[in-house]
Prior knowledge:
Layout: H1 2-37, H2 42-77, H3 85-100, E1 122-123, E2 126-127, H4 128-141, H5 150-162, H6 181-188, H7 198-209
Antiparallel strand pairs: 1-2
Helix pairs in contact: 1-2, 1-7, 2-4, 2-6, 4-5
Amino acid sequence: MEDARLYIERTAPAVEGLFKLLNQYDWQKMDALVTLMKSKTRSELDANKQNFSSNDIAREVIAGSILQIAYVAFASYAKPQVKSDNALHFESEINRLIRENPNRARQKGKFSLPMQFCVGRDIGDLPLGVIVFAGRNQYNHFYENKRLCVINELVFNHLHAMWPAPENGLSFDLMPGKLFSYSVLAALGWLDESNSLGYEVYTRDLSYALHI
């Protein structure tokens, strides 16, 4: 699919740059944490807390920008044909809960995952594209200080059930006013690890999902 291929090629310099920045802020956050722990006075502690928090926010914004670029790729070029067995199972379980608890359910009517984003490998019961969808939406609306729509909440609940206590300060337990973009990238496997680079996994996942 030529349009999708061109999109990946033309956004590659920006995306690769974002991944390099993300890795840079990972190291800066570690340095900021060490500095924070060495604080000797209250004024030093306050200043070092601010520095640590700023690094954290920058890292989340970079991760959110990566999710936005992937979201546009799926929204513009994905051609899903069928939903995976895991995705169908997820939908059936949510609809069962709705039938059994009609007065408590926020969802009115039948629940369905967005077909356009039911692409890519499955992560738990959900397609990679659906996790990108929810992660991008949380990134774009975290400042509104209100609950996300049903589909986005359900995705984060699923991730939280899979990883209730992730390491390194990650979390999928939604709360107003907090960004979770970096945690979503971790769930997608798009962070640099000893055996792979996040950018390479990102490119492979998008190429697979878009049938390139």
